[in-house]
Design a protein that fits this description.
This protein has about 110 residues and is of the alpha+beta class. The protein has four helices and four strands. The strands form two sheets. A two-stranded antiparallel ribbon has the order 1-4. Strands 2-3 form a two-stranded antiparallel ribbon. The mean pLDDT is about 90.
């Protein structure tokens, strides 16, 4: 089964009314990787060892590699999380969906 690389080493975007803010969003000092790591490490339910390992990797490397079963589990975890704002959960899910889509595209042939 193919692995899906989730690169979350990017800033959490916040709403902004500032002119010039791309799509009405501006970057914050918080990273998506750290936000998801915090959600996982503070979860009172779930696979504590797996969540801890993921949280460490997210803090250390900014991403994790998951199989389809773990991808689905993590997606459900994020969707059902009661402590994170919809703004953050939505960004995490967008990055996850883009990573999944990229992992299913056939590799481009290199010219000979």
């Amino acid at each position: 089964m193919a692995k899906i690389r989730l690169n979350l080493n990017q800033p959490v975007m916040d709403l902004s009314a500032d002119e010039g803010a791309e799509d009405g969003l501006k970057p914050t000092d918080q990273k998506l990787s750290h936000t998801l790591g915090t959600m996982l490490k503070t979860s009172p339910e779930g696979d504590a060892l797996k969540y801890l390992c993921w949280a460490i990797d997210l803090y250390k490397d900014g991403g994790i590699e998951v199989d389809q079963a773990d991808f689905d589990h993590l997606q459900t975890f994020i969707k059902n999380n009661k402590t994170a704002w919809a703004l953050v959960r939505g960004q995490l899910l967008q990055v996850m969906n883009a990573a999944k889509e990229a992992s299913t595209k056939p590799a481009e042939a290199k010219p000979a």
